[in-house]
Amino acid sequence: MIILPAIDLLDGKVVRLYQGDYQQQQVFGDDPVVFAKEFQQKGATHLHLVDLNGAKVGTKVHFEVVRRIVAETDLFVELGGGIRTEADIEDVLAAGVNRVILGTIAQKNPTFAKEMLAKYGEKIAVGVDARDGMVAVAGWLETTETRADDFCQQLADWGCQTIIYTDIAKDGTGKGIDVAMYQRLNQLGLDIVASGGVASLTDIRQLAQVETYGAIVGKAIYSGTLTLEDCLTTAKEASR
């Protein structure tokens, strides 16, 4: 199982939100590139980047920061937040980002999502953010009428290869993950990346045991509850 340390970008800073609430943010640093380099030095191979400003306003806000991270590290970088057009996708991929995460647009414009998945294949992941089992969009500010598990099945039918599934109620809380839910999602035959609430090495072991493709770890690393090195070692051992 792959461990993806997370960098959430807001106003140029590295932050973490509590349950996606922009009013409940904790700032951890002013230079995201330094964090990315440090993650690589500690053994990370992948990085999960989110442009929180972009997610809110629907356009790329931290593009230059992302470009610097790609240029100054060897990490496999995936980026989400504010990517709503094919031009956005092309810009981000041309900048060297390895995988683009579609979120709001995939739910609001299925035709576009299907076209992009068909055209770009594995370079596109879809972020499915769930609040009480329903898909949330627009930086988690709006909850839709679509059931999250139904939407994941739809994405599989559309040819999506990677889903990043976030349980908003768990995100940034340190309360652990819903293993049974990931076990169900893994039956879709896709690469499922678990996001939100990974708070212990037990969470990582359980995700690996149900054959989850990857786990995003954010607040637990920033707060010192977990070290990135321990997360990487545990994931490797549990995946054997």
Model description:
The model has no long low-confidence stretch (mean pLDDT 90). The longest helix has 11 residues, at 110-120. The chain has 240 residues and is an alpha/beta fold. It has an eight-stranded parallel β-barrel with strand order 1-4-5-6-7-10-11-12, surrounded by seven helices. It has helices spanning 32-41, 52-57, 63-72, 86-94, 104-108, 110-120, 148-157, 179-186, 201-209, 219-223, 228-238; strands at 2-10, 13-18, 21-29, 46-51, 76-80, 99-102, 124-131, 134-137, 142-147, 162-167, 191-195, 214-217. Helix 1 (32-41) runs parallel beside helix 3 (63-72) and helix 9 runs parallel beside helix 11.
What topology emerges from the helices and strands here?
Layout: E1 2-10, E2 13-18, E3 21-29, H1 32-41, E4 46-51, H2 52-57, H3 63-72, E5 76-80, H4 86-94, E6 99-102, H5 104-108, H6 110-120, E7 124-131, E8 134-137, E9 142-147, H7 148-157, E10 162-167, H8 179-186, E11 191-195, H9 201-209, E12 214-217, H10 219-223, H11 228-238
Parallel strand pairs: 1-4, 1-12, 4-5, 5-6, 6-7, 7-10, 10-11, 11-12
Antiparallel strand pairs: 1-2, 2-3, 7-8, 8-9
Summed up:
The chain has 240 residues and is of the alpha/beta class. It has helices at 32-41, 52-57, 63-72, 86-94, 104-108, 110-120, 148-157, 179-186, 201-209, 219-223, 228-238; strands spanning 2-10, 13-18, 21-29, 46-51, 76-80, 99-102, 124-131, 134-137, 142-147, 162-167, 191-195, 214-217. The protein contains eleven helices and twelve strands.
